[in-house]
Every structure is written in structure tokens, then in C-alpha cells.
């Protein structure tokens, strides 16, 4: 069986734009999840800016962690309508955006839980 890998060059400007969009997506996810948790815990909205940056960091860290971490080789065969097949082999986790979204939600959630614990400790 013959393997063919096609790698095409991507301009650094496009990569920078993609990372900025990922960071903005993480900020939106972090802000939303932090706001929802702070609304539920009634701790106030003082930590929303920090939640936005935690979401951005979490999204980028989750994404970059997934694409740089080795994963067991996985080959998927797709049968085309014309009778041909296409084989795709990956050495990385195939869904890094899912992991990035989960990390972008969890970091602000943990921050808000820490704020809740600290607020309750001050009251007692």
C-alpha cells in the first residue's frame, strides 16, 4: 500500500489570524461560562475579565496540547461513490476543538468555584 501525504505551505499571517480567532472564541466561551457560574453562585461579576482570559488561555492550551501530543495511529477508510477509497491516517487526536472547548469552559468554572469558596470563607 502506498501512502501519500500532502502538505501545503500556509502563510504565517493565516496561522496568526487562526490563533487570534481561536483566542477570541476562547474568550467568548470563558466569559459566557464564567458569567453563568457567577450568576448561579451570586458572587458578582467582578471576575468576568479574568474568566475571559482564562477561557482564551484554556482554548489555546487545549488546542495546542492536542495537536502536539502523540496519539495512537488511527486509519479511517472512506468509500467514495465512484468506487474508490480514501485512507486517512492520523497520529494526533482528531478532535482538538472539542478538548479546547472543554478546557475553555472548565478554567473559568474552577475560577468561579474558587471565588465562591473564598467569599464563603470571608463570611465565616
Helix content: 55-70%
- Spatially, the strands of the biggest sheet line up as 1-2
Largest sheet: 2 strands, antiparallel
Shape call: elongated
Description:
The chain has helices at residues 12-41, 48-68, 96-123, and strands at residues 74-79, 85-90. A hairpin with a 5-residue loop joins β1 and β2. α1 (12-41) crosses α2 (48-68), α1 (12-41) runs parallel beside α3 and α2 (48-68) runs antiparallel to α3. The model has no long low-confidence stretch (mean pLDDT 86). The protein is mainly alpha-helical. It is built from three helices and two strands.
Write the layout of secondary structure elements.
Blueprint: H1 12-41, H2 48-68, E1 74-79, E2 85-90, H3 96-123
Helix pairs in contact: 1-2, 1-3, 2-3
Q: How do you describe this structure in short?
A:
This protein has 124 residues and is mainly α.
Q: What brief labels describe this structure?
A:
single chain; about 120 residues; mainly alpha; two-stranded antiparallel ribbon; 2 strands; about 65% helix; elongated
